[in-house]
Each structure stands twice: as C-alpha cells, then as structure tokens.
Amino acid sequence: MNYISTRGQAPALDFEQVLLTGLAADGGLYVPQHLPVFSREDIAAMAAMDYPELAQTIIAPFVGDCIPAADLRQLLRDTYADFRHDAVAPLVQIAANRWVLELFHGPTLAFKDFALQLLGRLLDYVLERRHQKVVILGATSGDTGSAAIEGCKRCRNIDIFILHPHRRVSDVQRRQMTTVVGDNIHNLAIQGNFDDCQAMVKASFNGRAFLPGDRRLVAVNSINWARIMAQIVYYFYAAVALGAPARSVAFSVPTGNFGDIFAGYLAQQMGLPVARLVIATNRNDVLHRVLRTGTYARQALVHSLSPSMDITVSSNFERLLFDLYDRDGAAVAGLMRRFEHGEIAFSEAAMQRLRGLFSSHCVSDEATCAQIASTWNDCEYLLDPHSAIGVQAALEADIDAAVPVIALATAHPAKFPDAVARAGLQRAVDLPPHLHDLFQRTERFEVLPNELSAVQGFIAQHCTA
Questions:
Q1: Is the per-residue pLDDT at 464 higher than 80?
Q2: Residue 14 forms beta bridges with which residues?
Q3: Residue 101 pLDDT more than 60?
C-alpha cells in the first residue's frame, strides 16, 4: 500500500514512512493510493470477530508489508486490552432505532484513545527497529493531547510537546495532560485559541530547521494517516452489530477537524452500507456553512460548551476535497492556496457529490444543554456536550425511520461537569476509578505567548530522549 499527497507534488510513501511524516512535503495530507473494498460476505463474517480481530482485518491492508501480521495482531491486542469495557466500543439504545456508540472507555475517556493508543505503540515499534528518535508535536482542543501523552508516555525514543489554548479546555481535560509525569512530556499552554495552536504545528512541519541534530518531527493530530485508519474500525464494528450488511445504518458525528467523520466516509467507500453521514457542529459551524452555501471561509472562533469542537479550520476536509475533485492534486493545491488568503467557492459538481454524501446541523449551547436534559429524562442516559450535539443533529436529520441512527458518544460526561450542571441536572458525575485522584495530582505545564518563535525555541531546548 502506497500513499499519495492531496496536492499531488510529494513522493509516494509506504505506511511506515507516512507514519513518521505527517504533512507531505508539498503541504498536503497523505491518503491511500487506493482503498481496500470488502464484499457483503466479508462484512457478514465480521459479526463473529471481537474488536481487536476486526481491527486487524480493517487495518492490515493499509499497513501492507511494513509490519508482519503476527506483530500487528499483538500491537492491536495490547492497545485494546487497556479499555475498560470488554466490548471496547459498546452500543447503547436511547430510543426506537436511535443508538449511541460509546467511544470513551479508553484510558483518557475520549474517542481519541482508539487511534492514539495504537499510534504510540506503532511509533515505538517502528522507532525501535530503526534506532531512531523523534519529536512529536501536536495541538489539542481538549482530548487529543491527553490521549497522545497517554499513548506515547512509555516510548523511549520520543519527546512529546502538546500545545493547548490556555484556559480554553476543561479542568479535567487539562489535568489529564498536565499530571502525567515524564522528562520527555511537555505541555505548552498557548495564549491564544486552538486555531493558533494548530497553525503553529503546521508551520513547524513546513520549516523544521529549529530541531536539534537529525531529529524528525512526527504528527499526532489527525493529519497523521494512522489516526484516520484506526477510526475506520468502529464504524464497521457498530454497523455489523446492528445488522450490516443486510441493513444500512446512518451515523451522526460530532465534528471539528473532520477526521472522525472522514473515517466514516472511508468506511462507506470500503463497502459498508452507510445510508447517511451527519456532520454535527457546534456554534463554530464552518462545515455546516460549506454544505449550506458552497463556500469554505474562516470566521472568528467562538468558545462553547463543547471545546473539543471549537475549531474553524477543519484540516482533514482537504482529504475529502481530493476525492470530490477526482483526486486532482493540482486542483486541491489551488483551492488551498486561495483558502490561505480568504474564502473558496466549490464547483457545483463537487457540491452535488458532497451533499449526496453528507447532511449537517449546527447545534447551539442552549440546544446542547436541552438535549443532555432530555436524554437523561427520557432514558436516564447521560451525554457529554459533544455527544449531545451528535444526538441532536441525528434527530434533526431527514433519515428514513427504518434506518438505525448511531450518534458517536465521543467523550465521558465526567470530563465536562459544567455542561451537565448547565443542563439543570443536579447530580454528581464521577470520574472512573483510575482517575479518582486526578484533582490531587500535581500539574506541570508552561504558559507561552502566541508566538511561533517562542514555541520552537522551547522545543529546541527541551529535547531529551
């Protein structure tokens, strides 16, 4: 399996090279040269598989010859053994033909664990074999940082630097990052917003001269293909549990950076019968506006009750554009150049294809709180604010009543007690036992100005691995 850039000017790479690369040399994102496709018989056979076995089936074609099958099998078994539920990604019914897919049973209580616990193990495996050391650099709007640190903390060949917007993530999210002890772990609180953090990460990948020696820079944000690959698995897992391939299903996905729902799109392209993908956004509704107006434009970021979705530039949308424009790298490169200087309007053909694949809904903070309360009152199921947006968008979508609709529950409600309180629910939301002392642990982080030179200077001075 080889991978090509969405902008068409970078060399094709194999899986191991893509794992260690992040952004392509031409500024694009890597995507597979072709997708594996599973037949109805293949998908029916998945019903007999547990989660790690299914993950092996889905992921092996993307890895190719880079990792022997036995080693990949063990990496996957080790990854999902750390999850607190035997099903790994259990489905819970909340209404007639309405379900939530619980993706918060990993170590850091968020869906990012599915990819980042695996990514850490893949990196450690590859770096040990190559006798190489790298710097991991990532930006987080809340959950990526803690999952990346948890997944990579055991890696001897990695220094990890995570940028988060200062005072713009929840207390639980921050502490899950800043209380992990390790000389190779560095949390940087940037005096800006998530888009500022993400922009500095991208700028660093485009100019790596600040790194000491022969260090490579590796991405843990969803620009890294391995993260998207790992997320495809739970779409197959959930759909098969509800009767695929004999029946189609729909998914409603809380969406910020477009990585998670892009994985759902790939599952559909790989043969999974997905009737609809619903883009569920908060007040930062850049993707909802794309579907409504055909225009991709920046707007001022607004902080919300769902901070992991407080994003106004959806990096992975470029991967979808590559398909919408018939994999024409030059066309995508031109679009992204124009986007850097303003807004872009998409062709009518691209918009027809986009609207045929997705619908979208924007959910306010008030509607988010109302959905948290309503779901609790109806069935005593507690949603976090991001998951509530997915549930609300599913209710608003025009989907045949016979089609099961699965809303992705992307985080545990204990990470967002303020939102639960705003919903009017007078109840404590306890952290799981492994995090019971989180607020007694010592924090360690650095507050830095919103300046690229300050961040790159800090990284250069603190590489220790």
A1: no
A2: 2
A3: yes
Residue linked to tokens 């190779």: 184
Residue 21, classified by CB atoms within 10 Å of its CB into exposed (0-12), middle (13-18) or buried (19+), is buried
Contacts of 428 (CB under 8 A, 6+ apart): none
Backbone angles phi, psi at 289, to 5 degrees: -70, -30
All domains in the chain, ordered by first residue:
86-108+225-422 (3.40.50.1100)
Helix, strand, coil percent values for the chain (each to nearest 5): 45, 15, 40
At 419, list the tokens.
Answer: 């939102």
Q: Which residue among 112, 133, 202, 415 is the active-site one?
A: 112
254/252 Cα distance (integer angstroms): 7
pLDDT tens-digit map of 268-315: 999 999 999 999 999 999 999 999 999 999 889 999 999 889 989 899
**112 included as an active-site residue:** yes
CB 274 within 8 A of CB 268: yes
Distances in whole angstroms, Cα of residue 303 to Cα of each of 193, 222, 267, 282: 9, 21, 31, 10
For residues 281 and 393, give the distance between their C-alpha atoms in angstroms, rounded to a whole number.
8
User: What letter does residue 332 receive in the DSSP assignment?
Assistant: H
* d(C-alpha 172, C-alpha 154), whole Å: 22
Radius of gyration of the chain (CA): 21
Q: Tens of pLDDT along 20-46?
A: 987 899 999 999 999 999 999 999 999
H helix intervals, 138-283: 144-152, 171-178, 194-206, 225-241, 259-269
Express each pLDDT in 159-193 by its tens digit. Answer: 999 999 999 888 998 999 999 988 899 999 999 99
At 83, give phi and psi (nearest 5°).
Answer: -85, 150
Above 90 in pLDDT, residue 332?
yes
Taking the CA atoms of 229, 230, 236 and 239 in sequence, report the sign of the dihedral they define. negative
